[in-house]
Amino acid sequence: MNDFPFLTGISNQAGLQLVEYTPVASVSSFPSIANGVISSALTFAAGARWYSVYGSMSKKGYDEGGKETEHGFLYSPEIQLFYPGDTIATRQLLKLMEAPFHRYLLRLTDHNGFKRLVGTPWQGLTFGYEFTTDDNMGGARGYRLTWAGSLTEKPAVYTAST
């Protein structure tokens, strides 16, 4: 046991700066996790990469979640963001992403530059979305995107450069 350190002079902004995703089928090699840290980059199949998704600045969040079960601790991460607007191209991409059996890995970068890798090739996250519009004309109109899953290990800190 140890005391939690008192951090001075450190910015601790909430929310996410960057959300990137890739289908688990796109990963050809997954690096090892040592003490909760991944320090080497994933290797992708030919033509695959991280895909970024824009989200309204005040509407990108991450909840690690978790609970003790009779089989051990299970984490239930959820990433949500609001993607503004509505186009045919967006609808086609969303439909493709929600196809049955698609699972995803997400690389999240918060406003402090801290990165996490959420999911593994054997425990990927599912994707869902819903279109929503506020009642008033000046409100938000777009898609609430959600990635969620159940993991047996806490999402790893990601220190690799790519």
> Uncertain segments of ≥5 residues (pLDDT<50)?
none
Number of strands: 14
Order of strands, main sheet, comes to 3-14-11-10-1-5
Content of β-strand? 35-45%
Helical amount among residues, as a percent range? under 10%
Largest sheet: 6 strands, mixed
Please compute the radius of gyration using only Cα atoms. Answer: 17 Å
Rounded mean pLDDT is 89
Q: How many domains make up the coordinates?
A: 1
Order of helices and strands: EEEEEEEEEHEEEEE
Q: Whole-Å distance between the termini?
A: 34 Å
Q: What structural class do you assign from the helix and strand content?
A: mainly beta
The global form is globular
Number of helices: 1
Can you offer a commentary on this structure?
- By secondary structure, the chain is mainly β.
- It has one domain (16-158).
- Helices cover 6% and strands 40% of the residues.
- The protein is built from one helix and 14 strands; from the N terminus they run E-E-E-E-E-E-E-E-E-H-E-E-E-E-E.
- The chain has one helix at 88-97; strands at 16-23, 27-29, 37-38, 43-44, 51-53, 60-63, 67-69, 72-74, 78-84, 104-110, 115-118, 126-133, 141-148, 156-158.
- The strands form four sheets. It has a six-stranded mixed β-sheet, with no helix packed on it.
- A hairpin with a 4-residue loop joins strand 10 and strand 11 (115-118).
- The mean pLDDT is 89.
